[in-house]
Specification:
With 325 residues, the protein is α/β, with parallel strands linked by helices. It contains eleven helices and ten strands.
């Protein structure tokens, strides 16, 4: 395993962050793993040197946090960096169970800690930007959470770059904890973040941990085969993103060709491309099998030349912004 510093925090994390969206309750989404299978994945990740785990309160309505917490309970908690997120409404009957008001942040962070079985989470992230709550209120609530020892750092997820810049400026102006990470949508077939968000993060020393590094599985198999997978058949969110638009299909074909040439898997090429990007600290790799997790770790050893990277990227064309509003 390789390790890197997460942004400017000084915290050392594995170059792979295990995403735990696939842990919890298959009734939430059909491809989600049950508790025992989730625990096996966590244990194998630890064996492979992964020390960075990301979940969220809304994954399986909180079950993902519980599964992760119980899987890590038998280890030394100080060995791991655990991240979770809040924003989406958790209780249909309670509008204050979502959003980023002080009330929502305080109660939902407490609920997350209870499910994780932890007194402190290492990184608490806002899952999206709340346009109904002043950013100053959100930042003050997050600052208080750090001062109370409920989280060590705070991070953000997909939003417009100008919103993130405003939030960073507000933190500095008010003397509050600033966002140290950005969890954004970024992969070979979705590179709109390169225009503003990624250069901003690089300038501000913000750690980058992209979600959907394999484009919800689109970069893991040929375009013609994607609909044959369980996720392709049942995941309505997969086709909300513009992966197949413009040059997407051509990029998919090039990933397949380069993988065959190097004798590796398509997913490994797609991950290797991210590992070669200086502004990426640790992509969030979600998986439903130990084999795919092991493949992701092996991708760290794949060397791509500058010409390989240029060839993979060449068909890309601008696509609509996806992943936030």
């Amino acid at each position: 395993m390789e390790y890197t510093t997460l942004g400017s925090t000084g915290v050392e994390v594995s170059r792979i962050c295990l995403g735990c969206m696939s842990f919890g309750d298959p009734d939430w989404r059909e491809w989600v793993l049950g508790e025992e299978e989730g625990r096996e994945l966590v244990e194998r990740a630890v064996d492979l040197g992964v020390n960075f785990f990301d979940t969220a309160n809304m994954y399986s309505d909180g079950e993902s946090e519980r599964v992760l917490g119980e899987a890590l309970a038998g280890y030394d908690r100080d060995e791991f960096v655990v991240a979770t997120k809040g924003y989406f409404q958790m209780d249909e009957g309670n509008p204050n169970s979502g959003g980023l008001s002080r009330k929502a942040i305080e109660q939902e962070l407490d609920n997350s800690l209870d499910r994780l079985g932890m007194d402190t989470v290492d990184l608490y992230q806002i899952h999206r930007y709340d346009h109904d709550t002043p950013i100053e209120e959100t930042l003050r609530a997050l600052d208080d959470a750090v001062r109370r020892g409920k989280t060590r750092y705070v991070g953000a997820s997909s939003m417009w770059a100008h919103e993130f810049a405003d939030a960073l400026h507000a933190s500095e102006r008010l003397g509050l904890e600033r966002f140290v990470t950005m969890q954004n949508h970024y992969n070979l077939v979705y590179r709109e973040e390169e225009r503003e968000m990624l250069p901003l993060c690089e300038k501000e020393g913000v750690g980058v941990m992209p979600w959907s590094p394999l484009a919800r599985g689109y970069l893991a198999r040929p375009d013609d085969d994607i609909d044959a997978t369980l996720r392709g058949q049942t995941e309505e969110h997969m086709y909300e993103h513009p992966y197949r638009e413009k040059g997407g299909r051509s990029i998919n074909a090039r990933v397949e060709e380069l993988a065959a040439e190097k004798g590796v898997k398509m997913a490994q090429i797609a991950l290797a491309w991210l590992f070669h990007k200086d502004w990426v600290d640790a992509p969030i790799v979600g998986t439903t099998s130990v084999e795919h997790l092991e493949d992701a770790v092996e991708a760290l050893d794949i060397d791509l030349s500058d010409s390989d990277v240029e060839w993979l990227e060449e068909p890309y064309e601008p696509v609509p912004v996806s992943g936030h509003e």
